[in-house]
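Bench log. Compound arrived from synthesis this morning; before running ITC I wanted a structural hypothesis for how zinc ion sits in the protein. Inputs:
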Amino acid sequence: MGTMAHTWQCPACGRRVPMRVSACHCGMTRERAEVMAEAHAAAERPAPRPARPGLRTPPAPLPRDVKALVAGVGLVAVLGLGWLIFGPRPQPPVPVLGYVDATPPPVPQPTPTQTPPFMLPWWKSGRASRR
Ligand SMILES: [Zn+2]
């Protein structure tokens, strides 16, 4: 409803008061009526204002730490999957018909018998063993 040019509506009693009259008969002044009308209109609006003025900044995207963490978790998952697929086989190859895998037997380490009873420096021990 458009306000008529020559009257203003009193919000208290709803009476239309001529513009030349600055106050309604109920005591409401035109200034207060305008303020209340604006406040009422602002309240009727679907809230264009931010809900919290302190949090006007939009939610920031994920920080780098979280991205790195997600990437690390994904990398670990990929590595674990690869380990499960291409990892060491739990079962050794079964020997077929006496065929044994040609793993050389452990060579016994020849115990050096010429070691002096006391530790010589490497240059002296080398010469002593040569001569
Ligand atoms: Zn009034």
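What the model suggests: The CA atoms of residues 42 and 49 lie 10 Å apart. The beta strands are 7-9, 16-18.
ITC booked for Thursday regardless.
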